[in-house]
From TrEMBL:
SUPFAM superfamilies: Glyceraldehyde-3-phosphate dehydrogenase-like, C-terminal domain. PANTHER family: N-ACETYL-GAMMA-GLUTAMYL-PHOSPHATE REDUCTASE, CHLOROPLASTIC-RELATED, N-ACETYL-GAMMA-GLUTAMYL-PHOSPHATE REDUCTASE, CHLOROPLASTIC-RELATED-RELATED. It holds the Pfam family Semialdhyde_dhC_1. InterPro entries: AGPR (IPR050085), AGPR_AS (IPR023013), AGPR_dimerisation_dom (IPR058924). The lineage of its organism: Eukaryota, Fungi, Dikarya, Basidiomycota, Agaricomycotina. It comes from Pholiota conissans. One of its GO terms (biological process) is amino acid biosynthetic process. This is Glyceraldehyde-3-phosphate dehydrogenase-like protein.
Amino acid sequence: MPQELYGRAPIRAAKRISNPGCYATSSQLLLAPLVDYLKPGALPTIFGMSGYSGAGTIMENDASGKPVTKPKVSAESLGTFVRPYSLTGHIHEREAGFHLSTLRADGTQIKVAFIPAVAPWFSGIVSTVSVPLKAPMTAKDVIALFEERYKGEKLITIQKDVVQLRDVEGKHGWTVGGFQMSVEGDRVVITGGLDNLLKGAATQCLQNLNLALGYDEYAGIPIA
């Protein structure tokens, strides 16, 4: 679970800590400020695009017979194409829904629809979420919820513009932006992103280690 959502005290006291998945981190951060404003029975839908480093590796033998690891997906194999995969039932879909449900005031379950895709860049995730709302809101209303939820968080950036790869690639935090409403005000679309190798993995791991060992949470993490 991202530290920014579920608090630091449980991590400091924990004996076992697991890092949240990179896609699940961005999905949870995108939806957390809105968990009590979701339209009942409707699924928030997240489309995420990740650099091919997020696809993992496979073991192969090189020309000499020595085992080596290679990316499951390469930039060459993708060309200029974005490849959707695991179109339903992705593990991060269940992970995000499970943890978001713990944030809801009435305790009811939240389900999300998540569609991942791998893209021909190395690292960085950009996710777009479409959120049906139970009552009309304005973009200012939604932004205010995000500003309140993430006030004082050093690794979270809220911006006006749609999040692009350049906003997150090689950076240690998570960025959110866009905030566009439907004409009726009953649906908001938001973009968010992080580097899957940093805030989606190593940076988050270092935060957890620092907290568990009693150090400053951000020790060793450059803060922009």
